[in-house]
Amino acid sequence: MNAIHPKKLLLTKWTARRPVGRQKHFLVTKVILPEPPSEKIEWIEIEAVYTKKARVMRWRDLQDDAVWRQGWL
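and the corresponding C-alpha cells:
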C-alpha cells in the first residue's frame, strides 16, 4: 500500500502497472478541494504525461499497489 497524504499529492508522479488508455506515466495536476472546506479531500485530476489526457479519480485509488506505483519506472 502506497503511503500518501492527499494534501501532498499535487505534482506527484505515478506509473500504472497496466497501461490505462495505452499510457503508463501520469502526473497529479490538480487536487480537487471539497465544496465545504471542512470536508475531506476525495478527488484528484491525473494527467497522462505524453497525451496530456486528464481524468478525475479518487485519490485513495493510488494507494493500491496492484494498480499504481509511485514515481516513473
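(Above: one complete record from the training split.) The radius of gyration is 12 Å.
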